[in-house]
Amino acid sequence: MPSATPRPLPDSLVALRELALNLHWTWSHASDVLWRRIDDELWQRTENPWALLQNVPQSRLEKLAEDAAFAGELRHAIDEHRSYLQEAGWYARQPEQDLGTVAYFSMEFGLSEAVSLYAGGLGVLAGDFLKTASDLGLPVVGVGLLYQEGYFRQIIDAGGRQTEAYPNNEPASLPIQPALGADGEWLKVGLRLPGRTLFLRVWQANVGRVRLYLLDSNDIRNGAADRGITAQLYGGGAEMRLLQEIVLGVGGLAMLEALGVEPTVCHLNEGHAALVTLERARRFMRRAGTSFWEAWWATRAGNVFTTHTPVAAGFDAFPPSLVYKYSRDYVGDFAIPPRELLALGRRDPRDDDEPFNMVHLALRGCAQTNAVSALHGEVSRHLFGPLYPRWPTREVPLRHVTNGVHVPSWDSVWSDRLWTTCCGKERWRGELDVLPESIAAADDETLWALATTQRRDLVDYARERLAWHLGQRGESPALVAEAAQVLDPNILTLGLARRFAGYKRPNLLLHDADRLARLLCDAQRPVQLIVAGKAHPQDEQGKRLIHAWIEFMRRPGVRMRAVFLEDYDMALAQRLVQGVDVWINTPQPPWEACGTSGMKVLVNGGLNLSVLDGWWAEAYDPACGWGIESAAGRDDAGADAADADCLYRILEREVVPDFYDRDARGVPRRWVARMRASMSRLAPRFSSNRMLREYLQRFYRVAAAALRRRTDDGARLARDLRAWQTAVEARWHEVRLGDVEAKREEGAWRLSVPVYLGGLTPDMVRVEAYADPAPEREGACEPMRCGDAIPGSVHGYLYEARVPDARPAADYTPRIRPWHAEAFLPAELALITWQR
Ligand SMILES: *Cc1c(COP(=O)(O)O)cnc(C)c1O
Questions:
Q1: Is the pLDDT of residue 126 over 80?
Q2: In the predicted model, what is the mean pLDDT of the chain?
Q3: How far apart, in whole angstroms, are the C-alpha atoms of residue 441 and residue 431?
Q4: Residue with the nearest Cα to atom 11 of ligand 1?
């Protein structure tokens, strides 16, 4: 082993190594009893079996090696693990398995606190994605970076202010291993940078049946500055970010090739991975002997881009000089002018000052793009409209796949038990159709007992965690002891945890502190609140919001009813979503692209009270939870006050009364009815199982098939497509539409329009009669048939269509667009001409 040598284990315990080095334990929990038996304290503190094995005293291991009961437990756990790895899986049972391999590129992966390579929701999604691919047996590999430091850890000082710590990700303690090359040696890949070669070490994390490969630049051959490229997630300035993105995209593909993995689909999780598109084309042109643009057409079909950011300011954009510097060694291979390369990242290709935007590159380099919720789809089509000039916003080529969560990573032991009874052990590994009905059959008493038990666990955990943190900062024994008294397992419990970023409005609930205090301290129907979240180290405003919460929680009446738990991370998130009665989320629409934290409470019977933004805008149903129709957009100045008022009103008039309205048997029937509706209708729908199958069916299969057609036979189709594009672009200015004529004919309009194609032929274009949607009328887009040639013209034809006369003929505008049955349009060629 090339890294710090792991300690040898007694022979009868070697299977522990196999268990510890597969992150399957983050969701299967079959081996938890073992880790607890080995060293309960280390397990509680680290939740990292690999680190535990490196740190437990040797005498302890030797003792366990003699322990027959332990040997039995180990055998049971390893059998279960191996049978999971060997089972065929849902994908293998599908009629078609011709997908090839999907490579999933992401700057962040949130798999567990034991491998902390994430900052927030984007990374947690990527982690959930890989776990689900493993459960379904989908052929996926993950590609990411191994940071020497994960994202910062939050410490709250005695004054209630956030400070930061950056502990090291010590590779020897991480449940990962060096990836080996074909020669059996630790795999390292070289990457060309200006004036030097950067050596990247390759690590492998096992995520059930899926492999995640991680690159890091901390190789001894690199210069000191280069060794720090993968030092910190989102650390450093623009140049550092660009370098990290080069490592991810360019280094990532080089690594896959060295591993012998040839992806059919490259899935870019956010624009950070956009350089994959250029590098994939560069590798293809060398292999197939095509031009750069032919290779671009060939490989683009296999690229899928998921955008996560609803604001343009959130996109990575680099100064042209920086991009010139780092592309210098590559443009020679591309054999295109550098300016053409830079144009791929610009909205306006002629503007030499425009920065190079990674999201623009991703949109141009991927045949298919999606947003992460229905609402985010709409927002993104507006945002990216300028890249498709003169196209109606609703036709901007961007669909959506609403995010989902990997349910087995977020359910509690109690809810796991209940769901297993109702729906079986395999419930999240295949079809979901039968789940709603099966879980809905659970009776009221059982559901209420679930909520009660989970709430008790959360209160215990919150007390312990609070006491531990107070101890860490050296508070007095009296204060530490008081932590054991906070909260109450019988009180309605609200949870609120998120990044303290402005648009998330983490302090909306604190808008009227007195009103909130009255709610919490009501003598008959009290409420308690758990808050958590980090502010970005440079975000002073966010830090002030945290401080405001902590100040509020120091009020005498409130201190027993409300706690701030520091250092929000996945481990804390799990506990919170397992124990709260209500999860509160109050972003300012439309800036929550999707949001996933609220989805994590569904399986556990927690209810959502949220602003109708992101996923909740499509999930909300009064039977399942509560929604706040935000005033943002209507009345921006007063929006916070209006939204806060709405939030308080729902709590005071609906949430609290429903929770405390008990029948003779002590069960709040209306509350439980909501739990049942939310669990059965929403948990399956917002699972990552549904999400991955959507990607497979709507994106990956299409991508893999198109890639194959384009690359077969010496990339003949890709060359044809490039030739078609060139011809269309050269002659597009010659295309013209004459005046439209409308005649009424038995319930229809007959539209006809003369079309002059100049140097193009009818098979290269499509003419359509387009009508915008109007109140109570859907939009329409009717193809027009090419009819008679217009005498005396060159490529002039009369185009015709019959359209319903339910709307005026004047609603229809003829338009002409390039057409090729094999192209993704308008994603791959966005020309369009309208009749004026
Ligand atoms: C799920 C999760 C997120 C994402 O939460 P949203 O607020 O919904 O974006 C962020 N951080 C952690 C630790 C999580 O577990």
A1: yes
A2: 95
A3: 19
A4: 120
Domain pair 99-263 / 442-681, same fold: yes
Q: Is ligand 1 within 6 A of the CB of residue 569?
A: yes
* Number of the ligand 1 atom closest to the C-alpha atom of 600: 1
End-to-end, the C-alpha distance of the chain in Å comes to 70
Buried b (16+ CB within 10 A) or exposed e, 366-379: bbbbbbbbbbbbbb
Q: Ligand 1: distance of its center to the CA of 117 in Å?
A: 14
Residue 741 · residue 800 · CB < 8 Å = no
Alpha carbon of 433 to ligand 1 centroid (Å): 27
Measured distance CA(195)–CA(198) in Å, rounded: 10
Cβ of 496 less than 6 Å from ligand 1: no
Helix axes 292-300, 275-288, angle to 10 degrees: 120
Q: Please state the separation of Cα 394 from the chain's center in Å.
A: 23
- Residue with the nearest Cα to atom 5 of ligand 1? 597
User: 506 is written with which tokens?
Assistant: 């983490």
- 492-497 and 607-611 beta bridge pairing: unpaired
**CATH class of the domain defined by 442-681:** alpha beta
Q: Is 404 in the pocket of ligand 1 (CB under 6 A)?
A: no
Q: How confident is the model at residue 5 (pLDDT cuts 50, 70, 90)?
A: low
Quote the percentage of the chain above a pLDDT of 70. 99
Encode pLDDT of 287-324 as tens digits: 999 999 999 999 999 999 999 998 888 899 999 999 99
Structure tokens at 527: 């409420």
The fold for domain 99-263 equals Rossmann fold (3.40.50)
HSE-CB of 385 using CA atoms within 13 angstroms = 11
Q: How far is CA 820 from CA 1, 394, 708, in A?
A: 54, 21, 17
Which of left, alpha, beta for 80 (phi over 0: left; psi -120 to 50: alpha)?
A: alpha
Question: Which residue's entry shows tokens 């405003």?
Answer: 541
Would you say how long the chain is, in residues?
836
CA distance 56 to 54: 6
Architecture of domain 735-834: Sandwich (2.60)
Using alpha carbons, list the distances in angstroms from residue 392 to 363, 385, 779.
Answer: 17, 8, 11
Predicted local distance difference test score (pLDDT) of residue 1: 38
Q: What is the pLDDT of residue 3?
A: 44
Mean pLDDT of the 758-787 span: 94
Whether the Cβ atoms of residue 316 and residue 272 lie closer than 8 Å to each other: yes
Strands (E), 208-275: 210-216, 265-269
Q: What is the spatial distance between Cα 231 and Cα 607, in angstroms, rounded to a whole number?
A: 39
Ligand 1 atom closest to the CA of 592, numbered from 1:
9
Domain residue spans of the chain: 11-86, 99-263, 442-681, 735-834
pLDDT digits (tens, 9 = 90+) for 185-201: 999 999 999 999 999 99
Tokens found for residue 480: 């530490």
Supply the pTM of this predicted model: 0.97
* Coil/strand/helix, residue 643: helix
Region 694-716 average pLDDT = 98
Instruction: In whole angstroms, give the CA distance from residue 727 to residue 721.
Output: 10
422-438, pLDDT tens digit by residue? Answer: 999 999 999 999 999 99
Q: At 479, list the tokens.
A: 């204060």
Whether residue 2 has pLDDT greater than 50:
no
